[in-house]
Here is the input.
Amino acid sequence: MRKIGIFGGTFNPIHYGHLRPAEEIGDRLGLEPVIFIPSSDPPHKEKKDLLPAPLRGEMVRLAIADNPRFCFSDAEIARPGKSYSVETIPGIRRLWGGEAELYFILGLDAFLEIGTWKNPATLFTLCHFVILTRPGFEKIFTPEHLPVDLASEFCYDPKKDGYMHPSGFGVFPREITALDISSTKIREALGRGNSIRYLLPPAVEKFIVEKRLYQKGT
Here is the structure.
């Protein structure tokens, strides 16, 4: 059975803190491919400093171009209106077939807000979730991290090392290499005129510099 990773986000801009976790989880779970899906109009993100979706999408394309495991989807960029995962996941399933196992990858900080997403109860009936720890957050996932209104529906399975839902899908916490890189820090560095080398792929850095993105007066 084919296992497919879904990695969504604003990617404003994409950097090694996105790419390395996706590679590690891809290896660990045997995900092929890992699909990067830039959001068009994320409902939970501030619009300040958010580049237009086509520019962010192009940076994602450049970042993953040399990795055969990774692929790009414009599912949310092409769809008008707000970007909701509960609408994106069924579209990915239709594209890859009902037999594929889908794994939605997100950081612990984002997962802690999943109760505020559109139709959170439905989300857990659509695919598996892989929760990544990041610097500044607890390394050990506990049941308290599950949405309060839904926590009673999950049961921990030690063999799978995950919290299983009656739908058959699970929430799987996984530790990754800690890279203290963030899109916010990159934007701030650019705003100060500082170097962003070694924080993101050279092709993305070149694109940002040539387009004068995130810099003062642009």
Residues 41 and 82 are 5 Å apart (CA to CA).
